[in-house]
Amino acid sequence: MSDADKNGASDQDETLGTLFARLVDDGTNLFRAELNLYRQAAFRRVAQARLPVIMIVVAVLLAQSSVTTILVGCAFGLAHWLGPAGGGLAMGVIGFVISGLLVRTAVSRLSQVLSKANDKEAVALQERVVEEKVLQKKQEAEK
Q1: Which residues contact 124 (CB under 8 A, 6 or more apart)?
Q2: pLDDT at position 4, please?
Q3: Is 85 within 8 Å of 77 (Cβ atoms)?
Q4: Among the four residues 20, 24, 74, 97, which has the most C-beta atoms within 10 Å?
Q5: CA distances for 80 relative to 66, 74, 76, angstroms
Q6: pTM for the full model?
Q7: pLDDT of 93-102, one tens digit each?
Q8: Where are the alpha helices (DSSP H) in the chain?
Q9: Boundaries of domain holding 42
């Protein structure tokens, strides 16, 4: 075997090694980009879900106070032969209506946040990240 054959084989091995190293780097970069994409999507959904969750908590507290109002109104009504009971029941019903509206609105907003429509934004972001990585690799290859 001549020296030229040995050098040619050595260059080919080095090229394969370089290609493999680049493949590993590209895989690592892709994994990090995907992880970053999912992290951003999760933070976006948490931020969008904040208000509906607060509304649900307020609705639960309002419902609890409404039940208390009804019970106190009934107690007053029994104590005074149903005079204050009308006011207590009316306030309890109003509280339940308000809490029901809050829950309905919050559930509607949560379903929008969790729907597939928001995933279009994530796909667009992923495509942008991949395009940036490809452009970066092309620039590195030109150097």
Answers
A1: none
A2: 47
A3: yes
A4: 74
A5: 21, 10, 6
A6: 0.41
A7: 777 888 899 8
A8: 3-79, 85-113, 119-142
A9: 3-142
108-132 residue pLDDT tens: 888 877 776 556 666 777 777 778 7
Residue 81 near residue 44, CB atoms below 8 Å:
no
Residue ranges of the chain whose pLDDT lies below 70: 1-14, 71, 74-75, 77-83, 85, 87, 89-91, 116-122, 143
Strand, helix or coil for residue 83? coil
Residue that is written with structure tokens 């729907």 in the block = 115
Q: Is the dihedral of CA 84, 88, 93, 95 positive or negative?
A: positive
Which residues does 107 contact at the CB level (< 8 Å), separation at least 6?
Answer: 52, 56
Query: Structural domain tally of the chain?
Result: 1
User: Could you tell me the two tokens for 20?
Assistant: 């493999």
What is the C-alpha to C-alpha distance for residues 95 and 59, in angstroms, rounded to an integer? 9
| Cα–Cα dist 140/95, whole Å | 64
